[in-house]
Specification:
The complex is a heterodimer.
Chain A: H1 2-27, H2 41-68, H3 71-102, H4 111-132, H5 136-163, H6 174-177, H7 184-232
Helix pairs in contact in A: 1-7, 2-3, 2-5, 2-7, 3-4, 3-5, 3-7, 4-5
Chain B: H1 3-56
The chains are: A mainly alpha, B mainly alpha.
Chain lengths: 233, 64
Protein backbone atom coordinates (compact mmCIF):
# COMPACT_ATOMS: atom_id res chain seq x y z
CA UNK A 1 0.00 0.00 0.00
CA UNK A 2 2.74 2.42 1.04
CA UNK A 3 4.89 1.48 -1.99
CA UNK A 4 1.95 2.18 -4.31
CA UNK A 5 1.32 5.54 -2.63
CA UNK A 6 5.01 6.49 -2.94
CA UNK A 7 5.04 5.46 -6.62
CA UNK A 8 1.92 7.47 -7.42
CA UNK A 9 3.14 10.53 -5.49
CA UNK A 10 6.50 10.37 -7.30
CA UNK A 11 4.81 10.01 -10.70
CA UNK A 12 2.43 12.91 -10.07
CA UNK A 13 5.27 15.08 -8.71
CA UNK A 14 7.46 14.17 -11.71
CA UNK A 15 4.74 15.00 -14.24
CA UNK A 16 3.94 18.21 -12.43
CA UNK A 17 7.63 19.20 -12.36
CA UNK A 18 8.02 18.40 -16.07
CA UNK A 19 5.00 20.56 -16.91
CA UNK A 20 6.33 23.36 -14.67
CA UNK A 21 9.80 23.18 -16.27
CA UNK A 22 8.20 23.45 -19.70
CA UNK A 23 6.37 26.61 -18.59
CA UNK A 24 9.40 28.04 -16.76
CA UNK A 25 11.77 27.70 -19.73
CA UNK A 26 9.52 27.91 -22.77
CA UNK A 27 6.45 29.95 -21.84
CA UNK A 28 7.38 32.56 -19.22
CA UNK A 29 9.53 35.44 -20.52
CA UNK A 30 12.88 36.62 -19.11
CA UNK A 31 12.73 39.18 -16.32
CA UNK A 32 13.25 42.71 -17.67
CA UNK A 33 15.90 43.58 -15.05
CA UNK A 34 17.55 40.23 -14.26
CA UNK A 35 17.36 38.27 -17.51
CA UNK A 36 17.05 34.44 -17.46
CA UNK A 37 18.70 33.99 -14.04
CA UNK A 38 15.49 35.14 -12.29
CA UNK A 39 14.03 31.70 -13.17
CA UNK A 40 15.94 30.35 -10.19
CA UNK A 41 13.13 31.89 -8.11
CA UNK A 42 10.86 29.01 -9.24
CA UNK A 43 13.06 26.53 -7.38
CA UNK A 44 14.61 28.81 -4.74
CA UNK A 45 11.37 29.99 -3.09
CA UNK A 46 9.41 26.68 -3.28
CA UNK A 47 12.44 24.82 -1.86
CA UNK A 48 12.60 27.31 1.05
CA UNK A 49 8.86 27.02 1.77
CA UNK A 50 8.95 23.20 1.50
CA UNK A 51 11.78 23.24 4.05
CA UNK A 52 9.80 25.51 6.38
CA UNK A 53 6.69 23.33 6.08
CA UNK A 54 8.82 20.29 6.90
CA UNK A 55 10.35 21.93 9.97
CA UNK A 56 6.92 22.91 11.30
CA UNK A 57 5.52 19.43 10.65
CA UNK A 58 8.55 18.04 12.52
CA UNK A 59 7.81 20.49 15.37
CA UNK A 60 4.20 19.22 15.58
CA UNK A 61 5.38 15.59 15.50
CA UNK A 62 8.01 16.29 18.18
CA UNK A 63 5.36 17.83 20.44
CA UNK A 64 3.13 14.81 19.78
CA UNK A 65 6.00 12.49 20.72
CA UNK A 66 6.71 14.39 23.96
CA UNK A 67 3.03 14.29 24.93
CA UNK A 68 2.32 10.68 23.93
CA UNK A 69 5.68 8.88 24.06
CA UNK A 70 4.82 7.09 20.79
CA UNK A 71 8.03 6.40 18.84
CA UNK A 72 6.19 6.55 15.51
CA UNK A 73 5.98 10.33 15.89
CA UNK A 74 9.70 10.49 16.64
CA UNK A 75 10.58 8.43 13.54
CA UNK A 76 8.30 10.51 11.35
CA UNK A 77 9.76 13.76 12.76
CA UNK A 78 13.28 12.55 11.91
CA UNK A 79 12.20 11.59 8.37
CA UNK A 80 10.47 14.92 7.77
CA UNK A 81 13.44 16.87 9.16
CA UNK A 82 15.92 15.07 6.91
CA UNK A 83 13.86 15.75 3.77
CA UNK A 84 13.24 19.37 4.81
CA UNK A 85 17.00 19.80 5.27
CA UNK A 86 17.60 18.64 1.69
CA UNK A 87 15.17 21.26 0.41
CA UNK A 88 16.87 23.92 2.57
CA UNK A 89 20.21 22.95 0.99
CA UNK A 90 18.67 23.31 -2.48
CA UNK A 91 17.36 26.72 -1.41
CA UNK A 92 20.69 28.03 -0.09
CA UNK A 93 22.80 26.69 -3.00
CA UNK A 94 20.44 28.18 -5.59
CA UNK A 95 20.35 31.46 -3.67
CA UNK A 96 24.13 31.60 -3.69
CA UNK A 97 24.33 30.99 -7.46
CA UNK A 98 21.66 33.61 -8.08
CA UNK A 99 23.48 36.08 -5.79
CA UNK A 100 26.71 35.64 -7.76
CA UNK A 101 25.07 37.14 -10.82
CA UNK A 102 22.76 39.71 -9.23
CA UNK A 103 24.86 40.91 -6.25
CA UNK A 104 28.28 39.94 -7.64
CA UNK A 105 29.01 37.81 -4.54
CA UNK A 106 28.41 34.20 -3.56
CA UNK A 107 27.61 34.96 0.06
CA UNK A 108 27.07 37.76 2.55
CA UNK A 109 26.47 37.60 6.30
CA UNK A 110 23.11 39.32 6.26
CA UNK A 111 20.26 38.35 8.57
CA UNK A 112 18.31 36.19 6.08
CA UNK A 113 21.26 34.21 4.73
CA UNK A 114 22.88 33.78 8.13
CA UNK A 115 19.65 32.61 9.79
CA UNK A 116 19.11 30.06 6.98
CA UNK A 117 22.66 28.78 7.46
CA UNK A 118 22.07 28.54 11.23
CA UNK A 119 18.89 26.51 10.63
CA UNK A 120 20.83 24.13 8.37
CA UNK A 121 23.45 23.73 11.10
CA UNK A 122 20.77 23.16 13.77
CA UNK A 123 18.96 20.49 11.76
CA UNK A 124 22.22 18.85 10.69
CA UNK A 125 23.02 18.76 14.40
CA UNK A 126 19.60 17.14 14.96
CA UNK A 127 20.46 14.32 12.54
CA UNK A 128 23.96 13.90 14.03
CA UNK A 129 22.48 13.80 17.53
CA UNK A 130 20.21 10.94 16.49
CA UNK A 131 23.19 8.95 15.24
CA UNK A 132 25.19 9.66 18.39
CA UNK A 133 22.63 8.42 20.94
CA UNK A 134 21.76 4.71 21.04
CA UNK A 135 19.18 4.72 23.80
CA UNK A 136 15.83 5.28 21.96
CA UNK A 137 13.94 7.26 24.63
CA UNK A 138 16.80 9.64 25.33
CA UNK A 139 17.42 10.06 21.59
CA UNK A 140 13.76 10.82 20.89
CA UNK A 141 13.43 13.29 23.81
CA UNK A 142 16.58 15.28 22.96
CA UNK A 143 15.73 15.27 19.24
CA UNK A 144 12.23 16.57 19.96
CA UNK A 145 13.66 19.36 22.14
CA UNK A 146 16.13 20.34 19.41
CA UNK A 147 13.41 20.27 16.77
CA UNK A 148 11.27 22.64 18.85
CA UNK A 149 14.27 24.92 19.43
CA UNK A 150 15.15 24.85 15.72
CA UNK A 151 11.72 26.15 14.76
CA UNK A 152 12.49 29.41 16.58
CA UNK A 153 15.16 30.02 13.95
CA UNK A 154 12.67 29.23 11.17
CA UNK A 155 10.44 32.04 12.48
CA UNK A 156 13.49 34.36 12.48
CA UNK A 157 14.26 33.34 8.86
CA UNK A 158 10.68 34.10 7.81
CA UNK A 159 10.57 37.50 9.50
CA UNK A 160 14.22 38.53 9.00
CA UNK A 161 13.54 40.41 5.76
CA UNK A 162 10.93 42.49 7.58
CA UNK A 163 12.85 43.00 10.84
CA UNK A 164 16.26 43.87 9.38
CA UNK A 165 17.64 45.77 6.40
CA UNK A 166 19.15 42.93 4.40
CA UNK A 167 20.96 42.39 1.15
CA UNK A 168 18.28 39.81 0.47
CA UNK A 169 15.20 41.34 -1.21
CA UNK A 170 12.10 42.25 0.80
CA UNK A 171 9.03 39.95 0.53
CA UNK A 172 7.54 39.74 -2.97
CA UNK A 173 4.77 37.15 -2.64
CA UNK A 174 1.28 38.66 -2.50
CA UNK A 175 0.40 36.55 0.56
CA UNK A 176 2.89 38.75 2.46
CA UNK A 177 2.71 42.06 0.63
CA UNK A 178 -0.89 42.18 -0.56
CA UNK A 179 0.27 42.08 -4.20
CA UNK A 180 1.97 44.38 -6.70
CA UNK A 181 5.57 43.22 -6.25
CA UNK A 182 5.58 40.32 -8.72
CA UNK A 183 3.73 39.50 -11.93
CA UNK A 184 0.76 37.18 -11.11
CA UNK A 185 1.85 34.65 -13.81
CA UNK A 186 5.30 34.39 -12.19
CA UNK A 187 3.81 34.11 -8.72
CA UNK A 188 1.40 31.35 -9.80
CA UNK A 189 4.35 29.35 -11.18
CA UNK A 190 6.05 29.59 -7.77
CA UNK A 191 2.94 28.06 -6.16
CA UNK A 192 2.67 25.31 -8.83
CA UNK A 193 6.27 24.36 -8.20
CA UNK A 194 5.70 24.52 -4.44
CA UNK A 195 2.93 21.95 -4.89
CA UNK A 196 5.25 19.72 -6.95
CA UNK A 197 8.00 20.01 -4.31
CA UNK A 198 5.55 19.20 -1.51
CA UNK A 199 4.41 16.07 -3.38
CA UNK A 200 8.02 15.03 -3.99
CA UNK A 201 8.87 15.78 -0.36
CA UNK A 202 5.93 13.68 0.87
CA UNK A 203 7.07 10.73 -1.28
CA UNK A 204 10.61 11.04 0.11
CA UNK A 205 9.30 11.25 3.69
CA UNK A 206 7.25 8.06 3.18
CA UNK A 207 10.33 6.21 1.89
CA UNK A 208 12.49 7.56 4.72
CA UNK A 209 9.93 6.77 7.44
CA UNK A 210 9.69 3.16 6.15
CA UNK A 211 13.46 2.95 6.67
CA UNK A 212 13.09 4.34 10.19
CA UNK A 213 10.54 1.57 10.82
CA UNK A 214 13.01 -1.07 9.61
CA UNK A 215 15.71 0.45 11.88
CA UNK A 216 13.34 0.21 14.86
CA UNK A 217 12.60 -3.42 13.98
CA UNK A 218 16.34 -4.23 13.77
CA UNK A 219 16.93 -2.55 17.17
CA UNK A 220 14.07 -4.50 18.74
CA UNK A 221 15.31 -7.82 17.33
CA UNK A 222 18.85 -7.12 18.56
CA UNK A 223 17.61 -6.24 22.04
CA UNK A 224 15.49 -9.39 22.07
CA UNK A 225 18.46 -11.51 20.92
CA UNK A 226 20.64 -9.97 23.66
CA UNK A 227 17.97 -10.61 26.29
CA UNK A 228 17.63 -14.26 25.19
CA UNK A 229 21.44 -14.67 25.23
CA UNK A 230 21.64 -13.25 28.77
CA UNK A 231 18.76 -15.48 29.86
CA UNK A 232 20.52 -18.57 28.48
CA UNK A 233 23.85 -17.60 30.10
CA UNK B 1 26.86 49.14 -23.14
CA UNK B 2 27.93 47.71 -26.49
CA UNK B 3 26.06 44.73 -28.01
CA UNK B 4 29.03 42.40 -27.54
CA UNK B 5 29.22 43.09 -23.78
CA UNK B 6 25.45 42.63 -23.50
CA UNK B 7 25.62 39.25 -25.27
CA UNK B 8 28.53 38.13 -23.05
CA UNK B 9 26.62 39.15 -19.89
CA UNK B 10 23.49 37.41 -21.16
CA UNK B 11 25.45 34.21 -21.85
CA UNK B 12 26.95 34.33 -18.33
CA UNK B 13 23.52 34.97 -16.85
CA UNK B 14 22.11 31.97 -18.73
CA UNK B 15 25.09 29.81 -17.75
CA UNK B 16 24.55 30.51 -14.05
CA UNK B 17 20.83 29.78 -14.39
CA UNK B 18 21.82 26.39 -15.82
CA UNK B 19 24.25 25.83 -12.92
CA UNK B 20 21.46 26.65 -10.47
CA UNK B 21 18.97 24.16 -11.88
CA UNK B 22 21.69 21.54 -12.32
CA UNK B 23 22.75 21.97 -8.68
CA UNK B 24 19.16 21.52 -7.48
CA UNK B 25 18.72 18.28 -9.43
CA UNK B 26 22.13 16.98 -8.37
CA UNK B 27 21.34 17.54 -4.66
CA UNK B 28 17.94 15.81 -4.97
CA UNK B 29 19.42 12.96 -7.07
CA UNK B 30 22.25 12.37 -4.59
CA UNK B 31 19.74 12.24 -1.75
CA UNK B 32 17.53 9.75 -3.62
CA UNK B 33 20.59 7.57 -4.36
CA UNK B 34 21.63 7.72 -0.69
CA UNK B 35 18.06 6.77 0.34
CA UNK B 36 18.07 3.79 -2.03
CA UNK B 37 21.46 2.60 -0.76
CA UNK B 38 20.42 3.03 2.87
CA UNK B 39 17.18 1.13 2.19
CA UNK B 40 19.08 -1.79 0.62
CA UNK B 41 21.56 -1.85 3.53
CA UNK B 42 18.78 -1.85 6.14
CA UNK B 43 16.89 -4.67 4.38
CA UNK B 44 20.04 -6.76 4.30
CA UNK B 45 20.75 -5.97 7.97
CA UNK B 46 17.19 -6.96 8.93
CA UNK B 47 17.52 -10.27 7.05
CA UNK B 48 20.88 -10.94 8.72
CA UNK B 49 19.51 -10.28 12.20
CA UNK B 50 16.45 -12.47 11.53
CA UNK B 51 18.67 -15.26 10.20
CA UNK B 52 20.95 -14.95 13.23
CA UNK B 53 18.03 -15.18 15.65
CA UNK B 54 16.49 -18.08 13.74
CA UNK B 55 19.79 -19.98 13.81
CA UNK B 56 20.31 -19.36 17.55
CA UNK B 57 16.76 -19.93 18.75
CA UNK B 58 14.10 -22.55 18.24
CA UNK B 59 11.67 -20.25 16.45
CA UNK B 60 12.68 -19.62 12.84
CA UNK B 61 9.64 -17.32 12.30
CA UNK B 62 10.61 -15.00 15.16
CA UNK B 63 9.12 -11.58 14.44
CA UNK B 64 8.40 -8.41 16.38
Amino acid sequence: MREKLVTWLAIIAGLFLAFNLYRIFLVLPDDAMQGPIYRIIYFHVPAAITGFVGYFVALALSVLYLSSGNFKYDSLAASVTEVALIFSCVNIVLGSIWARIIWGIWWTWDARLTSVLISILIYSGYLMLRRAIDEPTQRARLSAALSIFGCLDVVIIWKSIEWFRTQHPAPVLSIRTGGGNIDPAMEHMIYYNLLAFLLLGTALVLVRSRQEGISREIDSLRRMANAVERHIA
Amino acid sequence: MDPHTISVLYARNFQFMFYGFAAAWVIVALYIISLARRGARLKKELEDVRRLIASEGDEPQLRI
